[in-house]
Amino acid sequence: MSEPKAKFAPLYREPAYLKVYRAIEENIIEGGLSDGEALPIEAQLCEQFQVTRSTVREGLRLLEQSGLIVRGSHKKFIVKRPNASDVAAAASRSLALGGVTFSEVWETLAIYYPQAARLAATRLNDESLAALNAVWRALDANAGEDHDKTVACAVEFFQSLAKGLDNRVMLAMLQSLNMMIGESLRQVIGKAPNARTRILNAQKNILDAFSARDEGLAEEWMAKHIADLKRGYVVAKVEMDKSIL
Amino acid sequence: MSEPKAKFAPLYREPAYLKVYRAIEENIIEGGLSDGEALPIEAQLCEQFQVTRSTVREGLRLLEQSGLIVRGSHKKFIVKRPNASDVAAAASRSLALGGVTFSEVWETLAIYYPQAARLAATRLNDESLAALNAVWRALDANAGEDHDKTVACAVEFFQSLAKGLDNRVMLAMLQSLNMMIGESLRQVIGKAPNARTRILNAQKNILDAFSARDEGLAEEWMAKHIADLKRGYVVAKVEMDKSIL
DNA sequence: AATAAACCTATTGTCGGACAATACTATTAT
DNA sequence: ATAATAGTATTGTCCGACAATAGGTTTATT
Q: How many C-beta neighbours within 10 Å does residue B202 have?
């Protein structure tokens, strides 16, 4: 019988815990369980799916890690649709783990952020502008040599910018870039002279361009800011082709 | 005793399955377990961590969902550092789940892709150009009314472009945009007249600009291409503020 | 009556053992 | 040598039990 009469595709026999995961995921996507709603307790899930708690719990771990459920009060799980920040955090973490280099990050900043600044010049509302100003003043006030604070403020500037664009797709992408900026800035901030002052000036110029609603200027200063950040790496003698981790 | 003498931060008592997850994750990051290497079997992990299989398995589910391990032969887990495509798939899925709209996606395309095209004009090597050409010819050959194929080809063009940029950060971002493009193109392709022809022409122009190494032209045609895609939505009367799902 | 202390209870976290299902290996038969 | 068979290691699932704990509820205290 080396010539079977008919060929069948192998049946997909996925483990029960995966089915549990998919079933709940599906339910969340379809809207049966809406944001903030509590999941049934484990015992009830066992009852409904007709599997044991061990199996249900493995499925819950999958949901947990995929960010679709989070712990509410008393350890109960509540449904949570992922937001841009969650996406960004997961993405930048994975990219970093994957070993992306300084130059890859920098290059992306260089082609993405100037355009984002251009958009920001027309789109940022007064509230966002005020927030950006506050961040800038915080950096200005932090005159000392507290490098961590400097990095935090510098990154926060980009974060506020990204938030003000009112676009979740961009927010996710820019935020994940921001996290990687922070990661790498931390490594050069101590070695680059006048880093804080240079950042302060650059962000001031960008801010002024935003306030004046001048797209061209915003793009230009942002481009210079990014270029200057890159110079920081060179001055600090950081190997640009090394992983950011 | 309403005046405690000292205040202590609450102790972090995280469940054992989380510790298992973190321990293995740590080991992967630190390089103890390198890419492609097999994880010890569950029984050995129990032995090492001194917990039961249920606990170990919950930890494994976390690792599984985070994409750090995948199944090898005989269901054994092997370590896998996430690559750009994995990141992109997870990110676009989460963003879609989060309810991002057509206009958010389109706006991001509009400010990101023209610049990417500019970079591509100088960076794409002959191999990448050939690949792009092949994708274009596939779309050209698909003269019929097979909309799925048309969408697949159109998206594949963007995919090839992204791959040719030789930058994993950009690749991840562009790929996740591409997936969302595909998702939304599918919804308009049938309703927009001459969609295939318009895409074909636009991509031809972009391709020619790449071949000529003309950055300006590449950016210009890409911008037109994206604008044209947006017009497709208008013509197809798609509500731009609706979720892409 | 308001507050604190003690108790109760529902739920999760972990354990240990058991067995079926299955994919890889070694052995035997042709 | 090839094919069929049996054996083995490992995962998937089940069951039942109990400890730990976050909340809620009652009781005691001033």
A: 20
